[in-house]
Amino acid sequence: MSLVRNARTLLTSPKTMRDFALYHTSKLRHGAAIRNLHGVQLSSFNSFSEFHTCDAIDESERRFLETFDFGEGAVFDIGANLGLVSIILAKRFPKRPVYSFEPNPSTFRALKNNLRLNNIINAECFEMAVYDKNGPILFDADPRSRATNKIVERAGDHSKQVRAITIDSFLERHGINSIALLKIDVEGFEEKVLEGAARALGERRINIVYYEVCPDNARRAGLKPMRAGEMLLDAGYHLYKLDEGLRPAATSEVDSVVLDNWVACLNELQGCGIKDWS
């Protein structure tokens, strides 16, 4: 039955059919599937599904990453996955350090391979989770769904013990004074990452926080969906929703969100359209 369902999906979705052809053509040509996205080459896919869904960046997000003025400082990619965002930012800022964090061993290997594939030399990747405490934690590392792997409380079939570190500890250990952009995509645990960055946020050492808002993920993590935004507001940040530009956002909107990307800025923005970014 699964073969029938897959065939129906291919026949009813031109994009899926096109990607399916690209996937197998690339495997024949290169020995492994390679996908070109936004000037980035990605490989080391675990399946066609991962190849098909790896382009999660829309036009507004791409323009934001490529043109928005983040100010001075290092770039942090928390939940780097296959490395698309890390590579876009490393290419944009070749003289800045980019720190990429990915705790799943399988995904981490793919991340390193993709950095090499794109000749990135200014990005350093760390096989660890970013959390509200330092030390070992449990992580669901299901090889079939690497993009949605997450921290768990109890051991399961695919759980692994991984290292965790806080942003504040990492900054102190590596002598980093400021972060231009802190990108966070951690399947609902954004609050925990921000708790581990309390000192840096309070000292205004992070210019921009770019984070995913998904109430269902936060609730599944046992956390409050509004809490991440509230913490940023308490630290003096201004909240914006990324949607064909940046528009002011309020935590009261969170409950109506399915999945959004929000941006927290130390300085209030006057011009919020895409045309004002570059």
Describe the structure.
This protein is α/β, with parallel strands linked by helices. It folds into two domains: 2-52, no CATH class; 57-276, Rossmann fold, CATH 3.40.50. Helices cover 35% and strands 23% of the residues. The protein contains eleven helices and 14 strands. The protein has an eight-stranded mixed beta sheet with strand order 5-4-3-10-11-14-12-13. Strands 6-9-7-8 form a four-stranded mixed beta sheet. Helix 1 (2-12) packs across helix 2. It is globular.
Beta content: 15-25%
User: What is the ordering of alpha helices and beta strands?
Assistant: HHEEHHEHEHEEEEEHEHHEHHEEE
- Rg of Cα set: 19 Å
Q: How much helix is in the residues?
A: 25-40%
What best-fitting shape do the alpha-carbon axes yield?
A: globular
The unreliable regions are none
Q: How many strand units?
A: 14
Per CATH, the architecture of the largest domain is 3-Layer(aba) Sandwich
What is the fourth-level CATH superfamily of the largest domain? Answer: Vaccinia Virus protein VP39
Query: What's the mean pLDDT score?
Result: 90
Please state the structural category.
alpha/beta
Strand order of the largest sheet: 5-4-3-10-11-14-12-13
CATH class of the largest domain: Alpha Beta
Tally of discrete structural domains? 2
From the 3D structure, determine the CATH topology of the largest domain: Rossmann fold
Roughly how many Å apart are the termini? 50 Å
Put simply, the count of helices is 11
How is the biggest beta sheet arranged?
A: 8 strands, mixed
Task: Please summarize what this structure is.
With 278 residues, the chain is an alpha/beta fold. It has helices spanning 2-12, 14-30, 48-53, 59-67, 84-92, 105-117, 167-174, 190-195, 198-202, 215-220, 227-234; strands at residues 35-37, 40-42, 74-78, 98-101, 123-126, 129-130, 135-140, 150-152, 159-165, 179-184, 206-213, 238-242, 246-248, 260-265.
